[in-house]
Amino acid sequence: MTNHLKKFGFFTLIVCVVMGFSGTGIAADYPKKPVTMYVVFSPGGSMDSSARGLSAGAEQILGQPIVIVTKDGGGGTVGLGVLANDAPDGYTIAAATSTGILRIPLRRKVPYKPLASFTPLFAYAAVASATVVNPDSPFKTMQDLIEFAKANPGKIKYGTAGAGSPMHLVMAVIGMKENINWIHVPFKGSAPAETALMGGHIDVVSTGDLDKAITGQLRTLCVHTKERMGILPDVPTTLELGYNYYNDTLFAIYGPAGMDPQVVKALEDAFEKAVDMPPYQKVAKQFGLVPIKMKSAEYRKFLEDGWPQQVEILTKLKLIEQPATEPR
Amino acid sequence: MNANLARELVIAAAVLVFALVVQFILIPTQIEQSVEYDLASLSPAFFPELAILIIGGLSILLILSNIRHLVKGIPPEQTDEVSLTLSEELRIGGAMAVSIVYYLVVDYLGFWITNTVGVTILLIIQDRRQIWRQILIAAATTLGIYLFFFFVMKVHFPIGKIFK
Amino acid sequence: MTSIVGNLLIGLNIIWTWEHLLAIVVGSTLGLVVGTIPGLTATMAVALILPLTFDMDFVTSIMLLVGAYKGGIFGGSITAILLNTPGTPASAATVLDGYTLTKQGKGIKALKMAKYSSCLADFGSDLVLIAVAAPLASVALKFGPPEIAMLIMFSLTIIAGVAGKSILKGLISGALGLLLATVGLDPIMTTRRFVFDQADLDSGLSLIPVLIGLFALSEVFLQLGRKSKSKADHFAIVHSKDPADNRVSWREFKRSLRTILRGTAIGTGIGIIPGIGTGIASFMSYGQAKRASKYPEKFGRGALEGIAASESGNSAVVGATFIPLLTLGIPGDIITAVIMGAFLIQGFIPGPLLFKDHADLIYAIFVGFIICDIVYFLIGSVFMKYAAYLSRVPRRLLFPIVFVFCIVGSYAIHHSVFDIGILVAFGIIGFYMQKFGFATAPLLIAFILSPIGETAVRQSLLMSSGSPLIFVNRPISLGFFLLTLITIAGIVRSHFREKHQPLIKEETK
């Protein structure tokens, strides 16, 4: 009897070990097996769809499949937290926004060191956001809105995807500069905010979903990107209007800290090419993503420079007193 | 005062204590105060405190209603619960222990081991005969679930930290 | 009217190809299979299929996803009835009577009633979708935060109906659900509440582990306690010897027809309003059915009407969530949001323009919905025959397997071991709650509804700069507020009447 038990147990142990085997990636043969990519937002959204499109292209270049695993929660922090503890062998990476590094850790404690726990690999898209109103709204330009808001404090209600989001920050910065008292109504995401706008319950929305702005179902007063958007050529940017702020949220790929530089190069090259390939291009067009190609070193600098800037803005807007997480 | 009534009183009192603990210990420590917020929108602590108020208030009502039963000599309402023998309770406790341990170790030992061992123990709890068959069934189930979830659902189970 | 029929015929023409029909069948089957497995939800089925659709043509991919959606919801009901494990939150109300019926040996009857109610209600809401999508959508838009807040408040009164014997304990259970729902980030200020420094709790307690723990795992614990008497000890009897238990008679069906209609209306209403979520439809329908019934005390004890109510509620929601999606581009719930992603990837932006430019495709999808209903009725019947084989599985084997599915299902959503911990915790909590007479359904209802309600209340107050009058200043919101008051008054009155009845009886002896 006990012999059977021993044999069986041994067999199970072997099977487990084989199942759990993860090789140490030697850069020269990278990748030798499929790569797992965590996506920190749920399926169907712009982050998930763009990550899938990008991987579809990248895996053709790398020669190994990229397996997508959804690890959402906490605005992206849960997935990043898991990545921070994974082995930096190049077989586990994650697609996440830059806000997981540059904004959320400032407001609450996260289970990783934003500037130290990761190897930034590649930033592939700039998220576009805009200020929109209903097509029958009396405000035809951003100036109309601002003048009305100045003259009628407490009357204008604007919706955003949540307190502290880049969309909220844009409106808050404008409000501060122009000395406007307008009311922020946070929603769980841009879609419910747009719904409330369309129902006439609020007056303006600072939104991260541009599909209705693109089709004209909603009127766009200004965009929050660095430069004018090709699909909305007549709409001014916040920078043009004189406000020293724009939404610089990026979609990017990260790996755990301490990755082999050759593996990093292989990945960033693959993703760079993947941006131009059809699977990703299709998605980018639909979601209105602005193409960016920032390789590892450049993106790392972006994050490190961005940290003190974000601290300054959030403190000035009285959203935080000091960063909730140490960067390193 | 019969046993039922005594038990009901204890339960109601326990709920009241729970409410007090949350109100005076958990809420102050666990609800972050934001730096500045618009008073119009109610503080983050409002709804939790509302919930506690209801729980506390109702538990007091429960206590009073039980006391009323005591005074008037009316037996309390029959609760919906099922009565269990001691050996049944022990078995249930064993099953609960298995699930707690499962949660704690699955990250370290990995899905394979944890699941096989866990299911085996659960089978044994119910029937101590034929331990061999039980282990085999447990392993087969584990394998089947792993295959289905890995290939069809694309779900990756914890490999187990000791194997990394 | 004629133009709708004309358009439908065009749509029928488009959809009637092998590819499309196959997509419907495959989607429905996959949805059914996934939904039936305890712990796996319709959302997962749809999210799973989504990446596979990137290379398919538009109508095919949408049909695949919709099939999975409908199949998944129904599949969840199968496990709810047979194993007390709701496969999706939508089926949570079905366990209240379904599982009891199974224990009484009437499992097949319950399943059949679920099938008829689901299909009828699904069909009904699809008809509404086809006929009056646009005007209804604009009504739905009128539901802003104050309206939603009052609607939620009204929905919470259902709790009284599912509180079991002790209404005080039921209300405590509900308040506990409210408290637990606040764990995580505050919806307005995004500050942390009750997070105990665990990053996993930042998004709050996930619904699925809580649901499965409370309803399914607690039952598993109970069943594992019973000693298995012999090798041949089988769990419950799905196939009873009495043929009357294995079918739904015309009389029984007729009696539930009203309930099904009401459930369809409620489900459709809830599906249309974006931002409510669909989990509540089954409970609301159940609560209303109980209130309107001549025999309310039968609910919870194996009333066929209870199943009819909850199943029609949760199925009617499906078609209705597409109304705001297709006409305004606003998804009605999470699954529809995922499907909207599919639209975008294919290059079609849902909204009023889509109707103008691609009406033929939209009508093809409409016809597809109807075909879906028929398909899953047929497949569902086949499925149920196999589900009945569950009765052959010896009890001591069945529940450990259900146990594993509970764990795996909870893990699979976010690939999170922490969710397993939540599952186990709520399994234990659920078991002891039931042992001490606290109903678990109120906790679940409050847990699902309070986040929506709290957010809506606080947004409304922001909109009104702090004045609570906003809830009564607006017609729809005022309407639901009054409805709530009336319902509460009714509950209080019937409660006192019940209490004094036995005393009166005693005095007249």
Q: Can you offer a commentary on this structure?
A:
The complex is a heterotrimer of chains A (328), B (164) and C (509). In chain A, 41% of the residues lie in helices and 18% in strands. With 328 residues, chain A is α/β, with parallel strands linked by helices. Chain A has a six-stranded mixed β-sheet with strand order 2-1-3-10-4-11, sandwiched between helices. In chain A, strands 7-6-8-5-9 form a five-stranded mixed β-sheet, with helices on both faces. The longest helix of chain A has 21 residues, at 296-316. Chain A is globular, with a radius of gyration of 22 Å. Residues 8-27 of chain A have low confidence and may be disordered. Chain B is mostly helical. Chain B is 72% helix and 0% strand. Chain B has four helices and no strands. In chain B, helix 1 packs antiparallel against helix 2 (46-72) and helix 3 packs across helix 4 (131-152). The radius of gyration of chain B is 24 Å and the shape is flat. The termini of chain B are far apart. Chain C starts with a helix and ends with a helix. Chain C has helices at residues 2-15, 18-36, 42-49, 58-83, 94-103, 107-141, 145-156, 158-161, 167-181, 207-225, 250-272, 279-292, 304-328, 334-346, 352-357, 359-387, 395-414, 417-435, 441-463, 470-473, 475-507; strands at residues 184-185, 192-193. Chain C has 509 residues and is mainly α. In chain C, helix 10 crosses helix 18 and helix 11 runs parallel beside helix 13 (304-328). The model of chain C is unreliable at 504-509 (pLDDT under 50). The chains are: A alpha/beta (328), B mainly alpha (164), C mainly alpha (509). Chains A and C meet through helix 2, strand 2, helix 3, strand 7 and helix 8 of A and helix 14 and helix 19 of C.
